[in-house]
Write a structure and sequence with these properties.
- The complex is a heterodimer of chains A (151) and B (371).
- Chain A is an alpha/beta fold.
- Helices cover 22% and strands 27% of the residues of chain A.
- Chain A starts with a helix and ends in a 32-residue tail after the last strand.
- Helices cover 46% and strands 13% of the residues of chain B.
- In chain B, strands 1-2-3-4 form a four-stranded antiparallel β-sheet. In chain B, strands 7-8-9 form a three-stranded antiparallel β-sheet.
- In chain B, helix 6 packs antiparallel against helix 11.
- Chain B starts with a strand and ends with a helix.
- The chains are: A alpha/beta (151), B alpha+beta (371).
- Chains A and B meet through strand 3 and helix 3 of A and helix 1, helix 8, strand 7, strand 8 and strand 9 of B.
Chain lengths: 151, 371
């Protein structure tokens, strides 16, 4: 599908989505509520079939956090980006690791580095950092004078 | 190396493999729950070589951050650098000279060959055959020598820069590459004779560690690991960059999805890489090696994503720019991270000895996973 066709199909799917101008691929902003339902639709609606989550990450905008999901379809070869704005103090979003299983590791990484809480995740523990680590290193206000992470 | 730690259920045994274990090829720590010799569960523990490269890059300029990426997947360092250079070029719309494009592709394919050679030797060593390791390193040495002559380094080349390549190739480069390909074509048959047709080897590989096509996609696998399961995911074919769309080569696919399929896909890929180099090596155009770029690069405000096919799979770079000289946020989507996530699923129900063989065919590089 082309970008315009995708946009039309997605508007039909959920009317509360907003689209961003520019960018290489179609960028959509989705609300955190009911995101799991939207993700299921993206995965299983014929014509969309976004079956490959190739990148999942988070960006700290100082006022809020944004989850970024890069999706592609292995059958139709179209790409899109889903963004979800989260509250910085209580970031919470439902896991998608039952839909794209690669998300299990990616979400554990985001959980420890950004402090996002993924609801219904089967095994939400620290993956990279030691268990007793305090703070979220990839947040912009993180400061650690002992472990140098800036050059 | 294998020490008993704790039992979870009656009859279960939990053991640690790593973080210092030769079969994990780096500091990967696996906690394995065993019932007898059968693996019930594998839990990877990462982070022993985590350097927080993503955070580091937030304070590096767009010329500097490329060098850090050599330290991630050190066997594909050229290709990592290439991906980062492409991202900057894409964002700033820099056209690079065709001489640089040709040399970049040749270097990428040489890197892929060297990486697959090392994998071949190390994988055979994992399952108990030591000779292949020495044979593979004998040929790999020729590539690292060629690299050293042109790039000045054998492992972390840092040869690609935004706008082209850092310096021109050595006068002997083409001659030596041709000599190497001629030599390696005869040696790769030796590889086949020694290992591929070996019945003991085949028994340890065939039907072991099957990853279905659906699972490969769901786990986000890429590279030879996914292609052995029939997933067409070669970035060079699907989203061609540089001059790959003008080249004749095949995307190597298999359908079985077992360890032997992953093994064969990589072996055939070595032939394909040599074909690619042969198409280019006599036709490198004369001219500039670098496009003119500003001394200080500033990416426009926005988000950029580039992907490139490394020896392990799809390497993605996601940059959020605020318009300054350093990235606001950078994320490296490393192929090993996603491939590793499938390990638990593949290994369950197999014997512990097979687990090491399966890990060998996944071709994990730990600094690439940890970043």
């Amino acid at each position: 599908m082309t970008r315009e066709e995708l946009q039309a199909a997605l508007t039909e799917l959920q009317s509360s989505l907003t689209f961003e101008e520019g960018g290489e691929w179609l960028n959509i902003n989705a609300p955190a509520e009911n995101f799991h339902e939207l993700a299921l639709k993206l995965r299983h609606t014929s014509g969309l079939d976004f079956d490959y989550l190739f990148c999942q990450t988070c960006v700290d905008w100082k006022t809020h956090l944004t989850m970024v999901y890069h999706l592609t379809s292995m059958t139709h070869r179209h790409n899109m980006v889903v963004k979800i704005k989260l509250d910085r103090n209580t970031p919470e979003v439902t896991t998608v690791c039952d839909i794209w299983r690669t998300a299990e590791f990616h979400e554990r990484e985001v959980y420890e580095l950004f402090g996002v809480n993924f609801l219904n995740h089967p095994d939400l523990r620290k993956l990279i950092l030691p268990d007793d680590w305090i703070g979220y290193p990839l947040r912009k206000d993180y400061d650690d004078p002992v472990n140098m992470i800036k050059l | 190396m294998f020490e008993e730690v704790a039992s979870t259920e009656q009859g279960d045994l939990v053991i640690n493999i790593g973080p210092q274990h030769p079969a994990t090829h780096g500091v990967l720590h696996l906690v394995i729950t065993l019932n007898g010799e059968t693996v019930k569960k594998v839990e990877p523990h990462l982070g022993y070589i985590h350097r927080s490269i993503e955070k580091m890059c937030e304070s590096l300029s767009y010329r500097q951050f490329i060098y850090v990426t050599s330290r991630m997947d050190y066997l594909s360092s050229h290709i990592n650098n290439h991906g980062c250079a492409m991202l900057v070029e894409k964002a700033l719309q820099i056209e690079i000279p065709s001489r640089a494009q040709y040399i970049r592709v040749i270097m990428d394919e040489l890197t892929r060959l060297a990486s697959h050679q090392l994998w071949w030797g190390a994988m055979a060593m994992d399952i108990g055959a030591l000779t292949p390791f020495f044979l593979a390193f004998r040929e790999r040495e020729m590539i690292t020598d060629i690299m050293e002559e042109t790039c000045g380094a054998r492992l972390t080349m840092n040869y690609m820069v935004p706008g082209g390549i850092m310096y021109d190739i050595h006068p002997d480069f083409c001659k030596k590459v041709k000599e190497f390909i001629k030599h390696f074509r005869s040696k790769i048959d030796e590889y086949d004779e020694l290992l591929t047709g070996n019945i003991i080897f085949q028994n340890r590989m065939k039907g072991i560690g099957i990853l279905s096509k659906e699972d490969a996609i769901s786990y986000g696998c890429s590279g030879p690991t996914a292609r052995a399961s029939g997933v067409s995911c070669d970035v060079r074919k699907i989203y061609p960059y540089e001059i790959y769309d003008q080249l004749k080569f095949d995307e190597v696919l298999a359908t079985e999805g077992d360890s032997f399929a992953r093994y064969q896909v990589r072996l055939v890929e070595m032939h394909q890489s040599m074909n690619i180099i042969e198409q280019l090596i006599d036709n490198i155009p004369e001219g500039e090696i670098q496009a003119k770029t500003k001394a200080v690069l500033k990416l426009p405000k926005g988000e950029f994503y580039t992907r490139i096919e490394t020896a392990r799979g799809e390497f993605g770079i996601y940059v959020v720019s605020e318009g300054g000289t350093t990235p606001y946020r950078i994320k490296f989507r490393s192929p090993g991270f996603s491939n590793l996530s499938a390990l638990d699923h593949i290994v369950r129900g197999h014997k512990i000895g097979d687990m090491v063989a399966i890990m060998g065919t996944l071709d994990l590089v730990i600094p690439d996973i940890d970043r």
